[in-house]
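Please, structure for the following, as tokens.
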Amino acid sequence: MKTKHPHTILRCLAAALSACAVTACSTSGSSQNAPAAALSPAQGGVLTRCADLPEKFAFDNTRINSAETVAAGAIKQGDRPLPAHCLVTGRMAERKGSDGRDYAIGFEMRLPLAWNGRFYYQGNGGLDGAVLPALGALGGGPLTGALMQGFAVISSDAGHSGAQTPVFGAEPQARLDYGYQAVAKLTPMAKQLILSAYGKAPDRSYIGGCSNGGRHTMVAASRQGEQYDGYLIGAPGYRLPYAALAQIWGVQKWSPLATPGATIPNPMDAKATIPDLGSALTLAERQTLAERILQKCDALDGAQDGLIQATQACQAQFDVARDVPTCTEKRDGSCLTAAQKTVVAAVYAGVRARSGEAFYSPFPWDAGIVGADWAKWKFVNSIQRDPLAAGMVFSVPPEQIDPFKTDIDTLLARVRATDGTYRESGISLMLPPQQEYPVNLDMLRVRGAKMILYHGVSDAVFSAEDTRQWYERLDKALDAKAASFARFFPVPGMNHCSGGPAADQFDLLTALVAWVEHGEAPQAVTAGVRGTANAGGANPEIPAGWSATRTRPLCAYPSVARYNGSGSLEDAANFTCRQNE
């Protein structure tokens, strides 16, 4: 990775969305960094065709399997009924793979009877392999979804079925479909299907997702920049092969600290067990670590409230070797051994090859280390999911690997390799082109498209620091114009896409639409905790001292939510986004 650049102080642009109950910063603007004129707003329509789509709709290499009307309220998102819509299922690019297996890009589209004139591509997570319901689910604990807002939504399996996961990694075309080609193939077909169903094409098109869905979205911004007007990018695993290697590297660091012979049930096989890697850093020890991070960093934003808003300032304030008690006798949860401190510091500092190359970024210190999802990614998925993906999908040649023994430098070479069968490396098929200095995204800025990125600061698998550094590179590549079309919203305390001690319920899609179609650049967007069951489900990790209705502003980087000095700490209205880091 290139050396990170000092962050550029962004200028506050337009007022926050009128729906936000927070105050945006008031720094003067700049014509150079001013947002491009808004694109024209979408105009709605009414569904005119559903049941006869299998017979009437025609598109190259595409088969519609079924189309049927779903009554209003027949299904729900969380506890909220969804509007009446047409559910369309189909398959694209059906073929016999080089491995003798049957492949196709499976998809479903949900077309609301009352349509808002917009199209939303739902990027799904993990290794894909399943057609998830096309509800347009958003990151965090969603207030709503794209379908509920009136979008026509598509979801796909990215070109392989779940029964083949991760076997599809041995089939070259399946790799390419998973990496980026499924989105490229489905997008024009989906727009044509919308035209057939409503009698008009979508006025505005959006794409979004979290995790691998965020990666799909970021890749689409580079490869299909002319196809979408808005890109909603959550916790983007845009360097997924490198992140997987970082996880495996972590296994080899944590393993010597784990209790010898201790095992836990294998979540992927009820009859098997895996090593208890979590015994290397127990929940009690993570709670102690979080408490010490809060002691150093919580008040940096003006409020001691269990949330570290001043993330960048915290990185300079906290030192695990100095600020956490060292165990002098046995481990009892109130301290860390010298060996634990060394490993924790190394994991948070980022991964280096033997050559010294830093091929994955550091992780930011944050109190969300107590989250169950944090531990799941560091201690469970790192043994199961990441080795499967790294070995079978990203490596050339594909092969199963042992996360406890496989040499990381060898794996690094394999994810960059090609051969006569696999003509694109794992890095090439997964990463956005020119990801180090993404100047090719300037076409989005010029034509008025917009990007919103968000990332949990305590994401354990894809580092929020990696996303921040990407944003800095974008800003440098575009001569400090990034904020005119792209905004990054860190979410303090949040784990991977949701969860952790965080205000993880927010609606950035509405903010994105307002920016694209009305020129309202989002500087602050209100987020709430999930203290009770709602569309996102209750979050069991909300600290006992927090109100179940706590709200906070999510602030566009580099501004920080600072307490105004008076009023309830549970109300976003008493915080202001300020550029104080």
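Residues 1-32 have pLDDT under 50 and may be disordered. Residues 242-427 form one domain.
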